[in-house]
Amino acid sequence: MNGSPSTVLTFAEYTLDVDRRSLENNGREITLRPQAMEVLCYLARNPGRPVPKEEIFREIWPGVLVTDDSLVQCIGDIRRALNDDNHRIVKTVPRRGYLFASVVDQAERGSRPAIASRQPEIPANKSRSHELKLALIGAVAILAMWAIVHWFVSGR
């Protein structure tokens, strides 16, 4: 240990000590496999932006050929550890990578979190709301077509 303070990231109800590679929830330590912990640390250090899978591969497994399955397994482990069944913290961004969507505060161990590193909260599942809008437009179009057909059939 070099005696320097550890970088600590807080998000949701979790505390992630990046230097010590430890994750806690209300003082209870949560264990993760080493590679899953590395992925979590990298994503938490890059909140609010989609991180491409290729970048994660390059940063976590430099010079090593790994499959997408390794990353998918790590993301699954992280989501289980964070009780993130709804993918509110770690989101999959189709064809782009992964997004750490929680607000993150950064501090040194033992100090109070700094406001300067806060990232804006990403609205819940933008792609889902886009799909809902498209479904609504489709439903309105079908209803309009039905009304036109009904109008012609009824002789008006």
Task: Summarize the structure in short.
This protein has helices at residues 34-45, 53-60, 68-81, 126-153, and strands spanning 7-11, 14-17, 22-25, 28-30, 50-51, 90-93, 97-100, 105-108.
Report on the architecture of this protein:
With 156 residues, the protein is α+β, with helices and mostly antiparallel strands. Helices cover 40% and strands 19% of the residues. It contains four helices and eight strands, in the order ββββαβααβββα. The protein is elongated, with a radius of gyration of 22 Å.
- Rg over CA atoms, rounded to whole Å, is 22 Å
Label the overall shape.
elongated
CATH class division of the largest domain = Mainly Alpha
What number of domains?
Answer: 2
What structural category do the secondary elements indicate?
alpha+beta
Provide the spatial order of strands within the biggest beta sheet. Answer: 4-3-2-1-8
Portion of residues in beta strands equals: 15-25%
The H/E string reads EEEEHEHHEEEH
- The total of helices stands at 4
Distance between the termini: 85 Å
The whole-number mean of residue pLDDT values reads 82
Name the CATH superfamily assignment of the largest domain: Winged helix-like DNA-binding domain superfamily/Winged helix DNA-binding domain
Assembly state: single chain
Number of strands: 8
The CATH architecture name of the largest domain reads Orthogonal Bundle
Could you name the CATH topology of the largest domain? Arc Repressor Mutant, subunit A
Poorly predicted residue ranges: 111-126
**What is the share of helical residues?**
25-40%
